[in-house]
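Title: Comparing notes on inverse folding

I've been comparing how different people in this forum approach sequence design from structure. To keep things fair, I'm posting one structure and asking everyone to reply with a full sequence. Here's the target:
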């Protein structure tokens, strides 16, 4: 079973993935509102309207947790790891990117993105190779960090363990925050901090929610107070507080779930489809904007049409595309393992 799917036994992880995706969706939904002045009429949703981009940071923490779960297993193999990661990430990303290129050709959408990176940038985007500029499909910038983390984890964790991996990632993040480094292919970028925090969360699984909840609440409250300017602190300190607060929240929710709490099925469903939601919402936005230009209506109404449409498309995408791909990767990986076992015996 794919790592993401295997972690679904932790339904609270799916809840947090749903939360992260919705945070990003609400944050980006205002892009559908034009002219820009109308965005001021949108209802303010604290933590979503203004800092919904922190959903990406939460995604990174969750990835750190999930990958730690994978690479620490006794039956971990590089081949299986690469195979499952490939089918989990690339095919859907290629499909979405191709849809964007089609709309570039058909309606001249995403013209600015194409002109920014050119044809070579498109190729690097398909390969999810780290690049300075945003890729053609803008949400793909996070995948560049994810794929780099997957590679680092696969090499370091089996040899030196998760604690060393977490320490290495923390050190890389601190170096990047401290020094004005030249282009480093994302090696010393901030996301390393969040991946490291997710690994710490995995190492702390089993800790009591009675301890984890106060820690998560205090760290997250402190970080949001900093983000909103109530506490003037360097952004680096704020990022550390959010990362560790999110890690503590994971530990708390897992312990609560282990004691009988059941996550609402709708949250699990959106969490399952969070990758589709993250990728497809960038296409839904211009589609809905085009319709609004012809139909008219209030900014708030169309903002929620963007949100509802994006979730609906994501649920359909997960059922028709993601889930079959995950199943294919799982089945072929098992067949390969069985053949290798039979040869060795």
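Reply #1:
Here's my take.
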């Amino acid at each position: 079973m794919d790592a993401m799917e295997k972690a679904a036994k932790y339904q609270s992880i799916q809840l947090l993935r749903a939360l992260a995706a919705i945070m990003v969706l609400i944050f980006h939904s205002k892009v559908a509102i034009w002219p820009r002045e109308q965005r001021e009429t949108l209802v303010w949703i604290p933590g979503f309207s203004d800092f919904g981009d922190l959903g990406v940071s939460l995604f990174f923490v969750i990835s750190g947790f999930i990958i730690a779960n994978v690479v620490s297993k006794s039956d971990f193999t590089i081949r299986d790891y690469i195979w499952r990661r490939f089918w989990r990430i690339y095919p859907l990303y290629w499909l979405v990117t191709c849809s964007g290129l089609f709309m570039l050709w058909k309606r001249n959408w995403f013209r600015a993105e194409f002109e920014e990176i050119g044809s070579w940038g498109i190729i690097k985007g398909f390969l999810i190779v780290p690049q300075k500029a945003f890729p053609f499909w803008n949400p793909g910038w996070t995948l560049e960090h994810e794929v780099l983390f997957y590679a680092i984890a696969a090499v370091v964790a089996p040899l030196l363990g998760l604690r060393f991996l977490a320490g290495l990632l923390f050190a890389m993040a601190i170096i990047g925050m401290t020094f004005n480094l030249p282009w480093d292919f994302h090696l010393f970028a901030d996301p390393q901090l969040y991946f490291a925090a997710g690994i710490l969360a995995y190492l702390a699984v089993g800790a009591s929610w009675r301890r984890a909840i106060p820690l998560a609440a205090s760290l997250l409250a402190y970080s949001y107070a900093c983000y909103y300017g109530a506490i003037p602190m360097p952004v680096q300190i704020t990022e550390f507080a959010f990362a560790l607060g999110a890690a503590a929240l994971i530990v708390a929710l897992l312990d609560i779930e282990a004691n009988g709490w059941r996550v609402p099925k709708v949250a699990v469903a959106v969490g399952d489809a969070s990758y589709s939601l993250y990728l497809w919402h960038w296409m839904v936005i211009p589609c809905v904007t085009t319709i609004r230009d012809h139909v008219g209506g209030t900014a708030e109404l169309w903002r929620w049409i963007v949100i509802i449409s994006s979730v609906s498309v994501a649920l359909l995408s997960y059922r028709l595309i993601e889930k079959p791909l995950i199943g294919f990767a799982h089945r072929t990986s098992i067949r390969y393992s069985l053949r290798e076992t039979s040869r060795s015996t």
